[in-house]
Amino acid sequence: MDVKQKRNIALLGHAHCGKTSLAESLLFVAGSVNRKGDVMKGTSVSDYNDDERERSISINASFLNISYSSHQIQIIDTPGYADFVGETISALRAADGAVVVIDAANGVEVGTEDVWQRLENLKIPRIVFINKIEKDGVSLEETLKDIREQLSSKAQVIDFHSSDLVEAVAESDDALLEKYLESGELSQDEVKGALRKAVLECKIFPVLQGTALQDKGTKELLDAIVSYMPNPTEHMPFKLYDPESEEQKTISPGVDGPFAGFIFKSMFDPHLGNICLMRVVRGSIEGNANCYNSTQKSKEHIGSIAILQGKDQSSVAKANCGDIVALSKLKNTFSSDTLCDDKERVVFPRVAYPDPSISASIKPKTRADEEKITSSLHKLCEEDRTFKMSRNAETKELIISGVGDLHLKVMIERMKARYNVEVDLGRPKVTYRETITKTAAARYKHKKQSGGRGQYGDVELEVSPCPMEGEEQYVFESKIFGGAIPRNYIPSVEKGAKKTIKEGVLAGYPIYNIKVVCIDGSYHDVDSSDMAFQIAAAMAMKEAFKKAGPVLLEPIMEVAITVSGDFIGQISGDLSSRRGRILGTEAKGKKDVVKANVPLSEMFSYASDLRSMTGGRGSYAMKFAHYEQAPSKIAEKVIAESQAAAASA
To answer: What is the Cα–Cα distance from 129 to 21, expressed in whole angstroms?
Structure first.
Protein backbone atom coordinates (compact mmCIF):
# COMPACT_ATOMS: atom_id res chain seq x y z
CA MET A 1 0.00 0.00 0.00
CA ASP A 2 1.11 3.54 -0.76
CA VAL A 3 2.63 5.01 2.40
CA LYS A 4 0.43 8.10 1.96
CA GLN A 5 -2.60 5.88 2.56
CA LYS A 6 -1.36 4.80 6.01
CA ARG A 7 -2.29 6.26 9.38
CA ASN A 8 -0.79 5.36 12.78
CA ILE A 9 -3.08 6.62 15.53
CA ALA A 10 -2.91 6.31 19.32
CA LEU A 11 -6.14 6.35 21.33
CA LEU A 12 -5.48 8.25 24.55
CA GLY A 13 -7.44 9.52 27.52
CA HIS A 14 -8.35 9.14 31.17
CA ALA A 15 -9.37 5.73 32.53
CA HIS A 16 -12.95 4.70 31.70
CA CYS A 17 -13.45 7.41 29.07
CA GLY A 18 -14.29 4.65 26.56
CA LYS A 19 -11.13 4.24 24.49
CA THR A 20 -11.42 0.47 24.11
CA SER A 21 -15.14 0.69 23.34
CA LEU A 22 -14.31 3.29 20.70
CA ALA A 23 -11.65 0.98 19.26
CA GLU A 24 -14.27 -1.79 19.00
CA SER A 25 -16.66 0.61 17.30
CA LEU A 26 -13.99 1.69 14.81
CA LEU A 27 -13.23 -1.95 13.95
CA PHE A 28 -16.92 -2.78 13.55
CA VAL A 29 -17.99 0.28 11.54
CA ALA A 30 -15.00 -0.13 9.21
CA GLY A 31 -15.91 -3.79 8.65
CA SER A 32 -12.69 -5.17 10.14
CA VAL A 33 -14.71 -7.42 12.49
CA ASN A 34 -18.09 -9.08 11.99
CA ARG A 35 -19.10 -8.97 15.63
CA LYS A 36 -18.53 -6.04 17.93
CA GLY A 37 -16.74 -6.85 21.18
CA ASP A 38 -17.78 -5.72 24.65
CA VAL A 39 -15.35 -4.59 27.35
CA MET A 40 -17.57 -5.60 30.27
CA LYS A 41 -18.18 -9.06 28.80
CA GLY A 42 -14.47 -9.58 28.16
CA THR A 43 -14.96 -10.02 24.42
CA SER A 44 -13.11 -6.95 23.10
CA VAL A 45 -10.30 -7.39 20.58
CA SER A 46 -8.08 -5.00 22.56
CA ASP A 47 -8.34 -6.27 26.13
CA TYR A 48 -7.49 -9.91 25.55
CA ASN A 49 -5.20 -10.70 28.51
CA ASP A 50 -6.72 -12.48 31.49
CA ASP A 51 -5.82 -9.68 33.93
CA GLU A 52 -7.50 -7.13 31.65
CA ARG A 53 -10.65 -9.21 31.32
CA GLU A 54 -10.85 -9.78 35.07
CA ARG A 55 -10.59 -6.06 35.83
CA SER A 56 -12.41 -4.76 32.72
CA ILE A 57 -9.61 -2.24 32.16
CA SER A 58 -6.76 -1.86 29.69
CA ILE A 59 -3.36 -2.70 31.15
CA ASN A 60 -1.34 -3.11 27.95
CA ALA A 61 -1.27 -1.10 24.76
CA SER A 62 -2.96 -3.19 22.07
CA PHE A 63 -2.58 -2.95 18.32
CA LEU A 64 -5.41 -3.02 15.80
CA ASN A 65 -5.59 -2.74 12.02
CA ILE A 66 -8.43 -1.21 10.02
CA SER A 67 -8.95 -0.97 6.27
CA TYR A 68 -11.15 2.00 5.49
CA SER A 69 -11.69 4.13 2.40
CA SER A 70 -8.60 2.71 0.67
CA HIS A 71 -6.52 3.52 3.76
CA GLN A 72 -4.75 1.34 6.31
CA ILE A 73 -5.30 2.68 9.82
CA GLN A 74 -3.18 1.20 12.62
CA ILE A 75 -4.78 1.93 15.99
CA ILE A 76 -2.91 1.73 19.30
CA ASP A 77 -5.36 1.45 22.20
CA THR A 78 -3.54 2.66 25.33
CA PRO A 79 -4.38 2.23 29.05
CA GLY A 80 -5.88 5.16 30.91
CA TYR A 81 -4.61 4.33 34.39
CA ALA A 82 -1.53 6.28 35.45
CA ASP A 83 0.02 3.06 36.81
CA PHE A 84 0.50 1.86 33.22
CA VAL A 85 1.81 5.10 31.75
CA GLY A 86 4.82 3.23 30.35
CA GLU A 87 2.52 1.65 27.76
CA THR A 88 1.36 5.09 26.63
CA ILE A 89 4.92 6.44 26.44
CA SER A 90 5.99 3.48 24.29
CA ALA A 91 2.97 3.83 22.01
CA LEU A 92 3.71 7.49 21.28
CA ARG A 93 7.07 6.47 19.79
CA ALA A 94 5.13 4.53 17.14
CA ALA A 95 2.26 6.94 16.48
CA ASP A 96 2.02 9.80 13.98
CA GLY A 97 -1.26 11.17 15.26
CA ALA A 98 -3.61 10.78 18.21
CA VAL A 99 -7.28 10.72 19.14
CA VAL A 100 -7.83 12.08 22.65
CA VAL A 101 -11.04 10.62 24.05
CA ILE A 102 -13.06 12.58 26.62
CA ASP A 103 -16.03 11.39 28.65
CA ALA A 104 -18.77 13.97 27.96
CA ALA A 105 -20.11 13.65 31.51
CA ASN A 106 -16.76 14.08 33.26
CA GLY A 107 -15.02 16.53 30.95
CA VAL A 108 -11.26 16.94 31.04
CA GLU A 109 -9.81 14.66 33.74
CA VAL A 110 -6.29 14.32 35.08
CA GLY A 111 -5.34 11.51 32.70
CA THR A 112 -6.47 13.68 29.79
CA GLU A 113 -4.26 16.54 30.96
CA ASP A 114 -1.28 14.21 31.27
CA VAL A 115 -1.53 12.71 27.77
CA TRP A 116 -2.25 16.12 26.26
CA GLN A 117 0.97 17.49 27.72
CA ARG A 118 2.89 14.52 26.33
CA LEU A 119 1.41 15.16 22.90
CA GLU A 120 2.32 18.83 23.18
CA ASN A 121 5.92 17.96 24.04
CA LEU A 122 6.15 15.62 21.05
CA LYS A 123 4.22 18.00 18.74
CA ILE A 124 1.88 15.20 17.66
CA PRO A 125 -1.26 16.27 15.73
CA ARG A 126 -4.47 15.19 17.41
CA ILE A 127 -8.25 14.94 17.17
CA VAL A 128 -10.52 15.26 20.21
CA PHE A 129 -13.44 12.84 20.40
CA ILE A 130 -16.14 13.63 22.97
CA ASN A 131 -17.55 10.23 23.89
CA LYS A 132 -20.68 9.10 25.80
CA ILE A 133 -22.86 12.00 24.66
CA GLU A 134 -25.93 9.81 25.30
CA LYS A 135 -25.55 10.24 29.07
CA ASP A 136 -28.20 12.23 30.92
CA GLY A 137 -27.30 15.79 31.83
CA VAL A 138 -24.47 16.07 29.31
CA SER A 139 -23.78 19.57 28.04
CA LEU A 140 -21.61 19.63 24.94
CA GLU A 141 -21.16 23.37 25.32
CA GLU A 142 -19.74 22.90 28.83
CA THR A 143 -17.50 20.05 27.71
CA LEU A 144 -16.16 22.09 24.81
CA LYS A 145 -15.57 25.03 27.15
CA ASP A 146 -13.69 22.69 29.51
CA ILE A 147 -11.54 21.43 26.63
CA ARG A 148 -10.64 24.95 25.53
CA GLU A 149 -9.86 26.09 29.06
CA GLN A 150 -7.99 23.02 30.29
CA LEU A 151 -6.32 21.76 27.09
CA SER A 152 -6.23 24.27 24.25
CA SER A 153 -8.13 27.23 22.87
CA LYS A 154 -7.31 25.83 19.41
CA ALA A 155 -9.91 23.06 19.76
CA GLN A 156 -12.50 23.52 17.00
CA VAL A 157 -15.72 21.65 16.23
CA ILE A 158 -15.67 20.50 12.60
CA ASP A 159 -18.58 22.43 11.12
CA PHE A 160 -17.77 24.09 7.81
CA HIS A 161 -20.71 26.44 8.23
CA SER A 162 -19.29 27.71 11.52
CA SER A 163 -17.64 31.10 11.51
CA ASP A 164 -15.42 29.99 14.40
CA LEU A 165 -13.87 27.23 12.28
CA VAL A 166 -13.49 29.48 9.24
CA GLU A 167 -11.75 32.16 11.31
CA ALA A 168 -9.47 29.61 12.97
CA VAL A 169 -8.45 28.19 9.59
CA ALA A 170 -7.88 31.67 8.18
CA GLU A 171 -5.66 32.60 11.12
CA SER A 172 -3.52 29.51 10.51
CA ASP A 173 -2.41 30.73 7.07
CA ASP A 174 -1.21 34.27 6.28
CA ALA A 175 -2.44 34.25 2.67
CA LEU A 176 -5.88 32.98 3.63
CA LEU A 177 -6.10 35.48 6.48
CA GLU A 178 -5.39 38.35 4.12
CA LYS A 179 -8.09 37.13 1.72
CA TYR A 180 -10.55 36.58 4.57
CA LEU A 181 -9.99 40.07 5.94
CA GLU A 182 -10.53 41.57 2.49
CA SER A 183 -13.57 39.56 1.38
CA GLY A 184 -15.01 38.44 4.72
CA GLU A 185 -15.44 34.87 3.50
CA LEU A 186 -13.64 31.73 2.28
CA SER A 187 -14.96 28.93 0.10
CA GLN A 188 -15.55 25.52 1.69
CA ASP A 189 -12.83 24.03 -0.53
CA GLU A 190 -10.37 26.65 0.70
CA VAL A 191 -11.25 25.90 4.32
CA LYS A 192 -10.97 22.14 3.82
CA GLY A 193 -7.67 22.48 2.00
CA ALA A 194 -6.12 24.62 4.70
CA LEU A 195 -7.62 22.70 7.62
CA ARG A 196 -5.45 19.61 7.13
CA LYS A 197 -2.29 21.73 7.05
CA ALA A 198 -3.38 23.53 10.23
CA VAL A 199 -4.06 20.22 12.00
CA LEU A 200 -0.68 18.80 10.98
CA GLU A 201 1.01 21.92 12.34
CA CYS A 202 -0.96 21.64 15.62
CA LYS A 203 -2.61 24.99 14.97
CA ILE A 204 -6.10 23.45 15.12
CA PHE A 205 -7.38 20.42 17.03
CA PRO A 206 -10.60 19.09 15.43
CA VAL A 207 -13.37 18.15 17.87
CA LEU A 208 -15.92 15.43 17.08
CA GLN A 209 -18.63 13.89 19.20
CA GLY A 210 -20.47 10.59 19.47
CA THR A 211 -21.05 7.50 21.51
CA ALA A 212 -18.92 4.44 20.94
CA LEU A 213 -21.45 2.03 22.45
CA GLN A 214 -24.03 3.06 19.83
CA ASP A 215 -21.50 3.55 16.99
CA LYS A 216 -22.51 7.19 16.68
CA GLY A 217 -19.82 9.55 15.40
CA THR A 218 -17.49 6.65 14.62
CA LYS A 219 -17.72 6.93 10.84
CA GLU A 220 -17.13 10.68 11.10
CA LEU A 221 -14.06 9.95 13.24
CA LEU A 222 -12.71 7.50 10.65
CA ASP A 223 -13.24 10.13 7.96
CA ALA A 224 -11.44 12.72 10.08
CA ILE A 225 -8.49 10.37 10.68
CA VAL A 226 -8.17 9.81 6.94
CA SER A 227 -8.63 13.50 6.11
CA TYR A 228 -6.63 15.28 8.81
CA MET A 229 -4.16 12.91 10.47
CA PRO A 230 -0.61 12.63 9.08
CA ASN A 231 0.70 9.76 7.02
CA PRO A 232 4.06 8.29 8.10
CA THR A 233 6.07 10.51 5.76
CA GLU A 234 4.55 13.60 7.35
CA HIS A 235 6.04 12.78 10.73
CA MET A 236 8.68 15.34 11.66
CA PRO A 237 12.27 14.21 10.94
CA PHE A 238 13.59 11.68 13.45
CA LYS A 239 16.59 12.63 15.55
CA LEU A 240 19.26 9.96 15.86
CA TYR A 241 23.03 9.49 15.91
CA ASP A 242 25.81 7.49 14.31
CA PRO A 243 26.78 4.59 16.62
CA GLU A 244 30.47 4.86 15.74
CA SER A 245 31.13 8.61 15.70
CA GLU A 246 28.11 9.49 17.93
CA GLU A 247 27.49 12.38 15.53
CA GLN A 248 23.89 13.55 15.74
CA LYS A 249 21.78 13.61 12.59
CA THR A 250 18.19 13.46 11.40
CA ILE A 251 16.44 11.29 8.85
CA SER A 252 13.10 11.85 7.19
CA PRO A 253 10.69 8.91 7.15
CA GLY A 254 10.07 7.48 3.70
CA VAL A 255 9.95 4.42 1.49
CA ASP A 256 13.35 5.14 -0.05
CA GLY A 257 16.70 4.80 1.63
CA PRO A 258 18.32 2.10 3.78
CA PHE A 259 16.08 0.27 6.25
CA ALA A 260 15.76 1.73 9.75
CA GLY A 261 13.32 0.57 12.41
CA PHE A 262 12.82 1.22 16.11
CA ILE A 263 11.82 -1.40 18.71
CA PHE A 264 9.46 0.66 20.84
CA LYS A 265 8.05 -2.15 22.99
CA SER A 266 8.24 -5.83 23.78
CA MET A 267 5.29 -7.99 24.79
CA PHE A 268 4.76 -11.50 26.10
CA ASP A 269 3.07 -14.24 24.11
CA PRO A 270 2.30 -17.53 25.92
CA HIS A 271 3.40 -19.54 22.88
CA LEU A 272 6.15 -17.45 21.31
CA GLY A 273 7.59 -15.79 24.41
CA ASN A 274 8.80 -12.19 24.09
CA ILE A 275 7.83 -10.41 20.89
CA CYS A 276 9.49 -7.18 19.75
CA LEU A 277 7.23 -4.48 18.29
CA MET A 278 8.89 -2.35 15.65
CA ARG A 279 7.94 0.83 13.85
CA VAL A 280 9.54 0.92 10.39
CA VAL A 281 10.79 4.47 10.02
CA ARG A 282 12.54 4.29 6.67
CA GLY A 283 12.84 1.79 3.84
CA SER A 284 11.62 -1.78 4.19
CA ILE A 285 12.60 -5.18 5.56
CA GLU A 286 11.60 -8.65 4.37
CA GLY A 287 11.06 -11.80 6.38
CA ASN A 288 14.00 -14.22 6.65
CA ALA A 289 16.46 -11.36 6.18
CA ASN A 290 19.50 -10.13 8.07
CA CYS A 291 19.92 -6.66 9.53
CA TYR A 292 22.07 -4.90 12.11
CA ASN A 293 21.20 -4.05 15.72
CA SER A 294 23.09 -0.79 16.11
CA THR A 295 22.20 -0.48 19.81
CA GLN A 296 23.67 -3.85 20.76
CA LYS A 297 26.26 -3.65 17.95
CA SER A 298 25.46 -7.11 16.68
CA LYS A 299 23.89 -8.78 13.65
CA GLU A 300 20.26 -9.86 13.89
CA HIS A 301 18.14 -12.19 11.79
CA ILE A 302 14.52 -11.33 11.06
CA GLY A 303 12.45 -14.50 10.83
CA SER A 304 8.74 -13.96 10.42
CA ILE A 305 7.01 -10.58 10.33
CA ALA A 306 3.46 -10.22 11.61
CA ILE A 307 0.71 -7.61 11.76
CA LEU A 308 -1.26 -7.59 15.03
CA GLN A 309 -5.01 -7.58 15.50
CA GLY A 310 -5.27 -7.76 19.26
CA LYS A 311 -3.88 -11.16 20.23
CA ASP A 312 -4.06 -12.49 16.65
CA GLN A 313 -1.12 -12.29 14.29
CA SER A 314 -1.11 -12.31 10.49
CA SER A 315 2.16 -13.04 8.74
CA VAL A 316 3.33 -10.66 6.02
CA ALA A 317 6.25 -11.04 3.65
CA LYS A 318 7.52 -7.49 4.05
CA ALA A 319 7.28 -4.44 6.30
CA ASN A 320 7.48 -0.96 4.79
CA CYS A 321 7.77 2.60 6.03
CA GLY A 322 5.11 3.37 8.64
CA ASP A 323 4.23 -0.25 9.42
CA ILE A 324 3.98 -1.40 13.04
CA VAL A 325 4.95 -5.06 13.09
CA ALA A 326 5.68 -7.88 15.52
CA LEU A 327 9.00 -9.73 15.34
CA SER A 328 9.41 -12.98 17.26
CA LYS A 329 12.43 -15.08 18.27
CA LEU A 330 15.01 -12.31 17.94
CA LYS A 331 18.25 -13.39 19.60
CA ASN A 332 19.72 -10.16 20.91
CA THR A 333 17.15 -7.40 20.46
CA PHE A 334 15.26 -5.63 23.20
CA SER A 335 13.01 -2.65 23.86
CA SER A 336 14.47 0.70 22.68
CA ASP A 337 16.90 -1.00 20.27
CA THR A 338 17.43 0.15 16.69
CA LEU A 339 17.46 -2.28 13.76
CA CYS A 340 18.92 -0.98 10.51
CA ASP A 341 20.70 -1.77 7.29
CA ASP A 342 24.32 -2.69 7.97
CA LYS A 343 25.38 -0.25 5.23
CA GLU A 344 24.06 2.78 7.12
CA ARG A 345 24.13 2.30 10.87
CA VAL A 346 21.99 4.65 12.94
CA VAL A 347 20.68 4.66 16.51
CA PHE A 348 17.38 6.16 17.67
CA PRO A 349 17.23 7.63 21.20
CA ARG A 350 15.95 5.25 23.83
CA VAL A 351 12.43 5.64 25.18
CA ALA A 352 12.55 7.76 28.36
CA TYR A 353 10.38 6.40 31.15
CA PRO A 354 9.57 8.00 34.51
CA ASP A 355 11.38 6.74 37.58
CA PRO A 356 9.40 4.33 39.77
CA SER A 357 7.56 5.99 42.65
CA ILE A 358 6.74 3.02 44.86
CA SER A 359 8.80 0.05 46.07
CA ALA A 360 8.24 -3.17 47.99
CA SER A 361 10.43 -5.96 49.26
CA ILE A 362 9.66 -9.36 47.79
CA LYS A 363 10.22 -12.85 49.18
CA PRO A 364 9.52 -16.18 47.48
CA LYS A 365 7.07 -18.43 49.32
CA THR A 366 8.96 -21.66 48.63
CA ARG A 367 12.48 -22.83 47.77
CA ALA A 368 11.25 -23.71 44.27
CA ASP A 369 9.95 -20.15 43.86
CA GLU A 370 13.30 -18.80 45.04
CA GLU A 371 15.06 -20.51 42.15
CA LYS A 372 12.68 -19.04 39.55
CA ILE A 373 12.06 -15.59 40.97
CA THR A 374 15.00 -13.73 39.41
CA SER A 375 14.48 -15.01 35.87
CA SER A 376 10.73 -14.30 35.98
CA LEU A 377 11.32 -10.76 37.25
CA HIS A 378 13.87 -10.11 34.51
CA LYS A 379 11.30 -11.10 31.88
CA LEU A 380 8.68 -8.81 33.40
CA CYS A 381 11.16 -5.92 33.52
CA GLU A 382 11.98 -6.37 29.83
CA GLU A 383 8.30 -6.20 28.91
CA ASP A 384 7.52 -3.22 31.15
CA ARG A 385 10.35 -0.70 31.47
CA THR A 386 8.60 1.19 34.29
CA PHE A 387 8.92 -1.96 36.42
CA LYS A 388 12.31 -2.38 38.11
CA MET A 389 14.00 -4.96 40.30
CA SER A 390 17.12 -4.57 42.43
CA ARG A 391 18.86 -6.23 45.33
CA ASN A 392 19.85 -4.14 48.32
CA ALA A 393 23.37 -5.31 49.10
CA GLU A 394 23.13 -4.00 52.64
CA THR A 395 19.77 -5.43 53.70
CA LYS A 396 19.97 -8.45 51.34
CA GLU A 397 16.39 -7.70 50.26
CA LEU A 398 15.06 -8.15 46.73
CA ILE A 399 13.20 -4.94 45.84
CA ILE A 400 10.61 -4.36 43.12
CA SER A 401 9.59 -0.85 42.10
CA GLY A 402 6.82 0.53 39.92
CA VAL A 403 4.50 3.43 39.20
CA GLY A 404 1.79 2.62 41.74
CA ASP A 405 0.12 0.02 43.97
CA LEU A 406 -1.99 -1.39 41.15
CA HIS A 407 1.07 -1.66 38.93
CA LEU A 408 2.95 -3.79 41.47
CA LYS A 409 -0.13 -5.91 42.14
CA VAL A 410 -0.59 -6.67 38.45
CA MET A 411 3.07 -7.62 38.03
CA ILE A 412 2.92 -10.01 41.02
CA GLU A 413 -0.21 -11.62 39.58
CA ARG A 414 1.53 -12.02 36.21
CA MET A 415 4.49 -13.66 37.87
CA LYS A 416 2.16 -16.26 39.38
CA ALA A 417 0.05 -16.79 36.26
CA ARG A 418 2.90 -16.96 33.74
CA TYR A 419 5.79 -18.44 35.69
CA ASN A 420 4.04 -20.13 38.63
CA VAL A 421 6.05 -18.08 41.13
CA GLU A 422 4.34 -16.94 44.33
CA VAL A 423 5.78 -14.22 46.54
CA ASP A 424 5.08 -12.19 49.67
CA LEU A 425 5.34 -8.40 49.54
CA GLY A 426 6.67 -6.29 52.37
CA ARG A 427 7.91 -2.83 53.18
CA PRO A 428 11.60 -2.32 52.31
CA LYS A 429 13.95 -1.89 55.21
CA VAL A 430 15.36 1.57 55.77
CA THR A 431 19.16 1.66 55.64
CA TYR A 432 19.92 3.54 58.86
CA ARG A 433 23.43 4.47 60.02
CA GLU A 434 25.06 4.74 63.45
CA THR A 435 27.46 7.40 64.68
CA ILE A 436 28.73 9.10 67.85
CA THR A 437 28.44 12.59 69.32
CA LYS A 438 31.53 12.82 71.56
CA THR A 439 35.00 11.43 72.14
CA ALA A 440 35.53 8.34 74.28
CA ALA A 441 38.07 5.57 74.77
CA ALA A 442 38.02 1.94 75.86
CA ARG A 443 40.52 -0.84 76.36
CA TYR A 444 39.99 -4.55 75.85
CA LYS A 445 42.37 -7.38 76.56
CA HIS A 446 41.68 -10.65 74.76
CA LYS A 447 43.45 -13.35 76.73
CA LYS A 448 42.78 -17.06 76.40
CA GLN A 449 44.82 -20.04 77.58
CA SER A 450 43.74 -23.58 76.82
CA GLY A 451 46.87 -25.66 76.83
CA GLY A 452 49.60 -25.12 74.30
CA ARG A 453 49.77 -21.75 72.60
CA GLY A 454 47.24 -19.25 73.90
CA GLN A 455 45.71 -16.03 72.54
CA TYR A 456 46.72 -12.54 73.62
CA GLY A 457 45.83 -9.14 72.25
CA ASP A 458 45.49 -5.92 74.21
CA VAL A 459 44.14 -2.78 72.50
CA GLU A 460 43.03 0.67 73.65
CA LEU A 461 41.06 2.69 71.12
CA GLU A 462 39.80 6.27 71.12
CA VAL A 463 36.82 7.21 68.96
CA SER A 464 35.64 10.69 68.03
CA PRO A 465 33.12 12.27 65.63
CA CYS A 466 34.59 12.94 62.20
CA PRO A 467 32.26 14.37 59.52
CA MET A 468 33.21 12.95 56.14
CA GLU A 469 32.22 13.32 52.51
CA GLY A 470 31.63 10.72 49.83
CA GLU A 471 31.63 6.98 50.39
CA GLU A 472 34.28 6.87 53.13
CA GLN A 473 32.82 6.13 56.57
CA TYR A 474 35.79 6.22 58.94
CA VAL A 475 39.39 7.29 59.52
CA PHE A 476 41.88 5.03 61.29
CA GLU A 477 45.09 6.25 62.87
CA SER A 478 47.77 4.66 65.04
CA LYS A 479 49.58 6.61 67.77
CA ILE A 480 51.47 3.63 69.13
CA PHE A 481 55.03 4.46 70.19
CA GLY A 482 57.73 2.42 71.80
CA GLY A 483 56.46 -0.89 70.45
CA ALA A 484 53.47 -1.33 72.80
CA ILE A 485 51.90 -3.12 69.86
CA PRO A 486 54.31 -4.44 67.19
CA ARG A 487 53.96 -2.68 63.84
CA ASN A 488 52.92 -5.86 62.05
CA TYR A 489 49.78 -6.13 64.26
CA ILE A 490 48.50 -2.59 63.56
CA PRO A 491 46.67 -3.75 60.37
CA SER A 492 45.01 -6.45 62.51
CA VAL A 493 43.81 -3.74 64.91
CA GLU A 494 42.34 -1.76 62.02
CA LYS A 495 40.70 -4.89 60.62
CA GLY A 496 39.00 -5.59 63.97
CA ALA A 497 37.79 -1.99 64.30
CA LYS A 498 36.54 -2.04 60.71
CA LYS A 499 34.51 -5.20 61.41
CA THR A 500 32.60 -3.42 64.17
CA ILE A 501 32.17 -0.32 61.96
CA LYS A 502 30.60 -2.49 59.27
CA GLU A 503 28.33 -4.46 61.61
CA GLY A 504 27.30 -1.61 63.91
CA VAL A 505 26.63 -1.65 67.63
CA LEU A 506 23.22 -0.08 68.31
CA ALA A 507 21.00 -1.79 65.74
CA GLY A 508 23.27 -3.61 63.33
CA TYR A 509 23.76 -0.70 60.88
CA PRO A 510 27.14 0.56 59.60
CA ILE A 511 28.89 3.26 61.63
CA TYR A 512 29.56 6.52 59.79
CA ASN A 513 31.59 9.66 60.41
CA ILE A 514 33.96 8.29 63.00
CA LYS A 515 37.68 8.57 63.68
CA VAL A 516 39.38 5.64 65.38
CA VAL A 517 42.79 6.06 66.99
CA CYS A 518 44.81 3.20 68.44
CA ILE A 519 46.46 4.84 71.47
CA ASP A 520 47.85 1.97 73.52
CA GLY A 521 48.04 -1.78 74.01
CA SER A 522 50.33 -4.66 74.83
CA TYR A 523 51.38 -7.97 73.33
CA HIS A 524 52.82 -11.39 74.22
CA ASP A 525 55.90 -12.76 72.48
CA VAL A 526 54.32 -16.19 72.03
CA ASP A 527 50.53 -15.89 72.33
CA SER A 528 49.85 -12.71 70.32
CA SER A 529 48.40 -13.24 66.84
CA ASP A 530 46.58 -11.52 64.04
CA MET A 531 43.22 -12.94 65.18
CA ALA A 532 43.80 -12.04 68.83
CA PHE A 533 44.36 -8.38 67.97
CA GLN A 534 41.36 -8.37 65.64
CA ILE A 535 39.11 -9.64 68.44
CA ALA A 536 40.57 -7.22 70.98
CA ALA A 537 40.14 -4.26 68.64
CA ALA A 538 36.54 -5.22 67.76
CA MET A 539 35.58 -5.43 71.44
CA ALA A 540 37.42 -2.22 72.37
CA MET A 541 35.64 -0.51 69.48
CA LYS A 542 32.23 -1.61 70.77
CA GLU A 543 32.96 -0.43 74.30
CA ALA A 544 34.31 2.94 73.17
CA PHE A 545 31.33 3.43 70.84
CA LYS A 546 28.85 2.87 73.69
CA LYS A 547 30.57 5.55 75.77
CA ALA A 548 30.73 8.12 72.97
CA GLY A 549 27.07 9.23 72.87
CA PRO A 550 25.90 6.82 70.14
CA VAL A 551 22.96 7.88 67.96
CA LEU A 552 21.03 6.48 65.03
CA LEU A 553 21.06 8.34 61.69
CA GLU A 554 18.20 8.12 59.22
CA PRO A 555 18.37 8.73 55.45
CA ILE A 556 16.88 12.04 54.35
CA MET A 557 15.54 12.36 50.82
CA GLU A 558 15.40 15.45 48.68
CA VAL A 559 11.84 15.45 47.34
CA ALA A 560 10.42 17.58 44.52
CA ILE A 561 6.60 17.57 44.27
CA THR A 562 5.00 19.04 41.14
CA VAL A 563 1.42 20.25 41.66
CA SER A 564 -0.89 23.08 40.69
CA GLY A 565 -0.91 26.06 43.03
CA ASP A 566 -4.22 25.25 44.72
CA PHE A 567 -2.68 22.15 46.31
CA ILE A 568 0.37 23.88 47.82
CA GLY A 569 -1.18 24.31 51.28
CA GLN A 570 -2.34 20.72 51.50
CA ILE A 571 1.02 19.41 50.28
CA SER A 572 2.93 21.55 52.75
CA GLY A 573 0.80 20.37 55.67
CA ASP A 574 1.22 16.76 54.68
CA LEU A 575 5.00 17.11 54.38
CA SER A 576 5.15 18.62 57.86
CA SER A 577 3.22 15.63 59.22
CA ARG A 578 5.91 13.42 57.68
CA ARG A 579 8.63 15.32 59.54
CA GLY A 580 9.57 17.04 56.30
CA ARG A 581 11.37 20.35 56.06
CA ILE A 582 10.21 22.53 53.16
CA LEU A 583 13.09 24.16 51.30
CA GLY A 584 11.11 26.35 48.93
CA THR A 585 8.70 26.54 46.01
CA GLU A 586 9.37 27.49 42.40
CA ALA A 587 7.20 27.85 39.31
CA LYS A 588 7.41 25.31 36.51
CA GLY A 589 5.12 26.20 33.62
CA LYS A 590 1.54 26.15 34.84
CA LYS A 591 2.49 24.24 37.98
CA ASP A 592 4.63 24.71 41.07
CA VAL A 593 7.42 22.54 42.41
CA VAL A 594 7.64 22.15 46.18
CA LYS A 595 11.09 21.06 47.36
CA ALA A 596 11.59 19.49 50.74
CA ASN A 597 13.82 17.21 52.77
CA VAL A 598 11.87 14.25 54.14
CA PRO A 599 12.96 11.10 56.02
CA LEU A 600 12.85 8.04 53.76
CA SER A 601 10.85 6.09 56.33
CA GLU A 602 7.97 8.54 55.84
CA MET A 603 7.86 8.23 52.04
CA PHE A 604 6.91 4.62 51.33
CA SER A 605 3.20 5.30 50.87
CA TYR A 606 3.65 8.74 49.34
CA ALA A 607 2.82 7.77 45.75
CA SER A 608 -0.69 6.64 46.73
CA ASP A 609 -1.19 9.44 49.25
CA LEU A 610 -0.18 12.14 46.76
CA ARG A 611 -2.54 10.72 44.17
CA SER A 612 -5.38 10.85 46.70
CA MET A 613 -4.58 14.40 47.82
CA THR A 614 -4.38 15.83 44.31
CA GLY A 615 -6.86 13.67 42.45
CA GLY A 616 -3.95 12.26 40.47
CA ARG A 617 -2.74 15.70 39.43
CA GLY A 618 0.49 15.62 41.42
CA SER A 619 3.79 13.90 40.75
CA TYR A 620 7.06 13.69 42.60
CA ALA A 621 10.66 12.63 42.35
CA MET A 622 13.17 12.03 45.09
CA LYS A 623 16.82 11.28 45.60
CA PHE A 624 19.08 10.69 48.58
CA ALA A 625 20.28 13.89 50.25
CA HIS A 626 22.10 13.04 53.48
CA TYR A 627 21.82 11.39 56.89
CA GLU A 628 20.41 13.10 59.98
CA GLN A 629 20.01 12.04 63.60
CA ALA A 630 16.75 10.17 64.05
CA PRO A 631 14.36 11.31 66.82
CA SER A 632 14.72 9.29 70.03
CA LYS A 633 11.33 7.58 69.70
CA ILE A 634 12.15 6.33 66.22
CA ALA A 635 15.66 5.31 67.24
CA GLU A 636 14.32 3.36 70.21
CA LYS A 637 11.83 1.54 68.02
CA VAL A 638 14.42 0.64 65.37
CA ILE A 639 16.91 -0.57 68.01
CA ALA A 640 14.23 -2.66 69.76
CA GLU A 641 13.17 -4.26 66.47
CA SER A 642 16.79 -5.03 65.62
CA GLN A 643 17.44 -6.62 69.00
CA ALA A 644 14.27 -8.70 68.75
CA ALA A 645 15.24 -9.90 65.26
CA ALA A 646 18.73 -10.79 66.48
CA ALA A 647 17.31 -12.70 69.45
CA SER A 648 14.90 -14.72 67.27
CA ALA A 649 17.68 -15.48 64.80
So the answer is: 13
